[in-house]
UniProtKB/TrEMBL annotation:
Region (Disordered): 1-26
GO BP terms in the entry: protein import into mitochondrial matrix
Official protein name in the record: Translocase of outer mitochondrial membrane 40 homolog (yeast)
Keyword Transport: yes
Record flagged with keyword Protein transport: yes
Pfam families in UniProt: Porin_3 (PF01459)
Listed GO MF terms: protein transmembrane transporter activity
Alphabetical list of CDD domains matching this protein: Porin3_Tom40 (cd07305)
Record membrane topology: Multi-pass membrane protein
Amino acid sequence: MPSVPPPSVPGQPAGETGSPLPNPGTYEECHRKCKEVFPIQMEGVRLVVNKGLSNHFQVSHTVTLSTLAESGYRFGATYVGTQQTGPAESFPVMVGDMDNTGSLNAQVIHQLTSTVRSKIAIQTQQHKFVNWQCDMEYRGDDFTSAVTLGNPDVLLGSGIIVAHYLQSISPALALGGELVYHRRPGEEGAVTSLMGRYTGNNYVATLTLGGAGAHATYYHRANDQLQLGVEFEGSMRTQETAVLFGYQLDLPKANLLFKGSVDSNWVVGAVLEKKLLPLPLSLALGAFLNQKKNKFQYLLQLPPTHWAMLGPAQTHTVLGLSCMYLLDSETLLYCELWGRE
């Protein structure tokens, strides 16, 4: 039976342990293992061209058309430094993109030492600063602590501070907590939550309890091909709860991946992905059905020569078309289309 490996400490050589307990990873990643099992819906038209200029620098051009979000053009750039801390980790990392209106999203991630990592992120809307935050993370032998400072304003006395702490109690059990403090003129408050995660040989169970509500996930790897996930969310503000069940079936010999899900609102979804080797193309078929609202969405991803619509036209039909093409050894062209009729 395959096992779920524990998180590793950046910069720590393989086989070398400075503590009998492993590092638990970060607080934000505790529910991620389960969420990766669920299929994701998409909407809109997107054309992406990635161009690698060197081993450390690449640029991208993105054109987006959507009925739900803003349409436009974005130019992006990514730089990865030469400080290698692991087989697939190098620092510093600088990522940014700007749209046709001048709005900017950028972040810089750097591994200061073998245990300290920092991140700075900024977001502007045309010529105005909208959001910016600074993160500092420390990874010890058996614990991880992090502090995030968001949108601080000394003149107005406003800002947000988020503190995370995660401690390994045993090789399988990790406990932690989160404190969110916000302040602005005429209002301030704090929200705390506690988190526990238990990692077995082939499963991960995580529970978060706080003033905002409860969040629980359970991830189970049945074998090398099948993964299962269950998520529960309850909100104290809206007095609502939701349960989501999903599974992922991976058939590497057939280059096939299938994801399915159903939630307590009777929304059923499924996505089938097929790699068309040796061509640099992929095929995906998916469908999402909302029983309560009587809405049905389905999608199709095919090369452009196979543009088609499955089934009769419906009021809430979503269609999709996407393809990837390797122009040369450094340029990747990617296009996807999701339409609503």
